[in-house]
Fold these 3 entries.
Entry 1:
Amino acid sequence: MADDINLRSRAIKASFWALLATYTTQAIRIVAMLFVAALLSPDDFGLYSMATVAAGFFSIFSSFGLHSALIWNREDPETAAGTAFCMTIFGAIVTSFLIFSFSTPLSVFFNEPRLALVLKIIAFEPLVSMFTTIHFIMLSRELYFRSRYLFGLSSSLAGNFVLILSAYLGMGIWSFVFSSYTSIVVGSAYLLFFSGIKFPIRFDKKMAYKLLRFGLVAAVNGYLFFLLFNLDYAIVGKILNTVQLGYYSFAYRFANVPANYISQAIVGVAFPVFAMVKHDADKMLRGYVKGTHWLTLAVMPAAVVLILFGPSVMDLLYGAKWMPAYNAFRILCLYGLSEAIIAPVGSLLYAAGKPSYQMWINVFRVITVVPAAVWAGSRWGFEGVAVAFTAIFLIAGVISVWTVKKYFDTTWMNLIKPVFMTAVACLAGGAASLTARAFIPFSGWPSVISSVSLFLAAALLTQYGIDRELRSIVRSGAEILNYKNITNNLFKKAYRING
């Protein structure tokens, strides 16, 4: 029991720091984008998105799935870390060599001559970051998310400062490149000197085999994830052009801020926590259901707010230049929401020692989404690509939940009830907000702020009314606050009497 309480406490603290890191870095990013979106063109956004996708084709060689393998493995962490470090160095060298060598063929494939030089420059990024990759993984493994927060804060501040400065100086596409290198260098310096992670650098064949046995499946799965989250960029860049890709990437960045980034923070904590209790299936399932409950409560209202009011905010912030991206933005909000809600499934299956289950789900997504996106993109442009990806990901989400149901022998109601409750609350909030908006005599920011506030108020009240667990936590918090007030008053009275 004491171990459960200790693990729960560590998980809550890690989640706090992970979410704080997410909100902080994204707030910095959004502020930076206020300037960058005005200083750079859609073509600059599109070309850099194309470069990151092209370079990412070789990402499978950079890690060998070591991130997942190190977290899943709970034996002899120092030997595992030292062995993984040696493997990471080898992978980074291979990755940089391949990106540099294939820069020209990839520029021919995308029909973009400028791409070759950009790829040659960013090819050295894996070499810059290879010395501290394992440090970052070990922070996650041991739930040291406060150090991860400081790492993210320092690298984000430095990188976005350079991004704004470079864009202001008229450096165009190179603003993104300079920003990326700055983030890597600053983040690596923090991990090397201030993270507190140390391990002996030695290679152990038996440990390497053990890590690779789990990690190679995870590496293939990670590569499939990369394809899934970047194939849309590749398809838009191939069948359309860099300007259209710029609009699409702009819409994607903002549509996925509250959904995917929040879910990534939670999943980053969930996997090491599940791995610590991987021999207790009931405890894993309870943790998954509870985690899905709170994750849905966090991401679904944010996604619905963006769908309803996001384009109005974007128009106020960035102007008419980005208006062609607004419809794709709304569609991609649904895509990001569906991916965020099912994100913990991967952590659960990985911790259960079944990464192959997630791999086959991703294989299904890849082989179905590519023809669908190419067909839809050829007919309706980048908006068609957004529709295709959203539809396929929704179908894959149902398959993922079904996999959890079968493996853990539970019921559909147990798994979907948290999502259903928050969906009802969001419907109530949306109905109240849209109805009232017709009578609000404001425009611009006052209209947006009042509409969003009304939505959140109605949604939260509805959620409170139908969510027993939320009511229990709110009442417990109120009792704690009331107890503290009573205690403080007693101390004050005692002080007066003694004084």
Note: The radius of gyration is 24 Å.
Entry 2:
Amino acid sequence: MMIHCKIVTPEGLYAQLDTKILNIVTTDGQRGILPNHMPLVTTLAIGQMTTEEADGRKHYALSQGLLHFVNNNATILVDSIESQSEIDVDRALAAKERALSYLHSDDPNVDYRRAEVALKKAMNRLKVKGYDAR
């Protein structure tokens, strides 16, 4: 038995895939969803999503969003998503450094919340890629 997963971003359909398990990070913590899980609607936090697809385990970097699961169909609505192979380490490192410079700035016009979110996204992308960004 498999879970059919549809992933949608503001740009449109990102992917449709079938997986044996869907591991996600919600605002309440990590969850593993197996086939025949009870219906669920939850908010997603910036984090890693893993799947077990026909060609092996896949890793994705997700931004915030929503998950709707019912009858072995998962719909994931996210601001952005990148598979491990799509992540550009140089771009993620540049985003991390840019966010850190905003957070350490004395400029009163800096949107610190936005900089914190940008830093979390960059760190998550590096983690999913397997890059130690400490």
Note: The first helix runs from residue 89 to 103.
Entry 3:
Amino acid sequence: MALPALTLELEAPLEERVARLEANVEHIQKDVSDMKIDIRRLGEKIDSVKDSVTALTINMEKQFAAVEKSFGALHTARAFDRVWWLLMSAALLGLMARAFKWI
């Protein structure tokens, strides 16, 4: 049994393969440059969001300070209300005690 002779198949020429690789590299470089541009845009958006969050934080701190002041005023007013109600209750009890001749 004789074997047929192996025929050598020539590979694609080296220049053709290099040209194909160069074309692929150009596409990759274009994609990378597009990604860099997108990353820069995202960086700018992040900076603007950071600025707005900082402004919001400052605004919230001012508002919380105002709320704390109003609570302080409310506690003072509530203390005066309690004293007033205590005096009214004492006067009413004194009046009832005289009416029922307890004192």
Note: The chain has a mean pLDDT of 86.
